[in-house]
Amino acid sequence: MKLEESIKADALNLGFDLVGIASASDPLLFETTEKYSDWLDNGYGASMTYLERHLPLKANPGALLPSLKSVLCVGLYYGTSSSNHDQNKAQVSIYTRGKDYHDVLEERLELLAKELQKKHG
User: Which residues, 6+ apart, have CB-to-CB distance to 18 below 8 Å?
Assistant: First the structure.
């Protein structure tokens, strides 16, 4: 099994729903960052000022880690299977209904890092 396939399989086995690997110098990264910057300029980040502070690292992740060659991106569905939706009642965002997704992601990312370290050094 190729390295990329092995990494993706490990991530999926740990419960991630999506996994992708891209070059840290992929031109699409920079194009996407420009769109993200426009989104912020339009005020869609509201009071979440950290989104703008982190923009330079999103545009150039190698600034954080100069030896960076690839970026591993994972996604995790944190919704519920419940379809109870009453138009007459206030709704609470899905991500607030379970365990804090920051904790869930951190836990799984640490497991993935350990697995990758064990298998690939």
Answer: 73, 74, 75, 76
57-81, pLDDT tens digit by residue?
888 888 889 999 999 999 998 766 5
Amino acid sitting at position 4:
E
Indicate the length of the chain as a whole number.
Answer: 121
Q: How far apart are CA 49 and CA 23, in angstroms?
A: 27
Contact 101, 95 (CB under 8 A): yes
Q: Give pTM, 2 decimals.
A: 0.75
Q: Does residue 49 sit in helix, strand or coil?
A: coil
How far from 79 is each of 7, 20, 57, 90, CA to CA, in Å?
25, 21, 28, 17
| Block residue for tokens 């890092």 | 113
